[in-house]
Amino acid sequence: MDIATIIGFLGGAAAVLLGVLTSGSSIMGIIDVPSVFVTLGGSFFSLWICAPMSQVTRIMTIIGRCFKVYDFGEKAIVQNMVSLSEKARREGILALEEGLDDLSDPFLKEGLRLMVDGSDGAVIRAILENEMAQTEARHMIYINLIIQWAGFGPGFGMMGTVIGLIGMLNNLEDKSSLGPNMATALITTLYGSWVANWLFGPMAQKLIGQNASEMNAKEMVIEGILSIQGGDNPRVLAQKLLTYLDPKARKAVEADVIKD
What does the alpha-carbon distance between residue 53 and residue 59 come to, in Å, rounded to a whole number? Predict the structure, then answer.
């Protein structure tokens, strides 16, 4: 469970509610079911126009990733690559074929298989980078869909406000209802802002960060495989891969992979 996402949701809600209460209003004053239908429902069904059904029906599953912490194993990649490099220097690259089927990372397995088969380094890089690009493209399909949802929210919020104002203007003879009707009309604008700035905008950024971490891990795999193929000293390989880690993670594994 990603605690940061939970804190963000609860903290954002608390900030809004605190603002409502300290302004002299009430929580019930900002709750309006028709406004939810217009903003959240209207913006969601707009996605069905701009994307295939197969993508829209998966969007909730993708949003669920915002509530999970993903470890792409960057530290383990450094350690594993150093071990593979040491084995390759002792026994030769062909010795790495043993145990390939036991690897859980298909990207690493594919790269090592290409290397063991004697593929040229440029070919290995081209294949693996294309695999990376296609993976990232699939991720961006859903990230962009969520960004579009965030963009549609304020538009439907204004649409709901206009609908409310039309209803209010049709009943101008009832002076006592003007204030409450105006407040209700403006609630959809509030909901539209929530959709963009509290829900789907931040979620899209979270997914962008996860994608960047995964691509960083894949880049480390490519660098490690090409370094092994090039016959680099395991220490040199370790120093190359450590540059991909943040200072805290680097310090945690540096002593294990770089030996004097």
Answer: 10
Tokens of 163: 């609908």
How far apart are alpha carbons 97 and 137 in whole angstroms? 30
How many CB atoms sit inside 10 A of residue 78's CB? 28
Residue 233 CA neighbour count, 13 Å, CB half = 6
Q: Where are the alpha helices (DSSP H) in the chain?
A: 3-22, 33-36, 42-50, 53-56, 59-64, 74-91, 106-116, 121-169, 178-194, 201-229, 234-242, 247-257
CA distance 35 to 156: 9
d(CA 48, CA 8): 28
Alpha carbon distance 57, 129 (integer Å): 29
Give the model confidence (pLDDT) of 37-63 as tens digits.
999 999 999 999 999 999 999 999 999
Q: Give the count of beta carbons closer than 10 Å to the beta carbon of residue 143.
A: 20
Nearby residues of 119 by Cβ (< 8 Å), 6 or more positions away: 127
Scanning the structure block, which residue is given the tokens 């990372």? 105
pTM of the model as a whole: 0.88
Q: Collapsing DSSP states into helix, strand and coil, what is residue 76? A: helix
Identity (one letter) of the amino acid at 13? A
194-239 confidence digits (pLDDT tens): 999 999 999 999 999 999 999 999 999 999 999 999 988 988 999 9
